Known about the structure:
alpha+beta; 5 helices; 33% helix
Amino acid sequence: MRLRIYEIADTAEIMKLFYDTIHEVNIRDYTQEQVDAWAPANMNIDVWIKGLGSKFTYVAEENGKIIGFGELEANGHIDRFYCHKDFQRKGVGKKILEQLESKAKSLGVEKLFTEASITAKPFFERHNFIIVKQQEVELRGQKLINFIMEKSI
């Protein structure tokens, strides 16, 4: 597995990874209606290119296949953070998180924070994030529970 910086050519594969992970992994903790709202079939690639390119986005790949990605904003916010459905619990997320933490430290950031799904909460807890609060967010007419979590670095 190698980590590298996001390139525009990665976008379609990242979008598919995002969609597949939510629909095949997060479905354990959310309803079909919720995952459809979270990862709709008709996502706009131009919006994704802009979003991925506006952050410090790292991609994990193995044998030329993208197996995970994570986005860090300059203020320490971890935005989208997903591992391929076939590469769960294999150290991919840990490697991406280590890279985001290293980048944050180089930017002088002292705290990482994220809004973790029910599914992702145990991963972030294992990596010393604490729950600040549980919240309910509305997305395309669906209400989803997630957790604001943070970690001092």
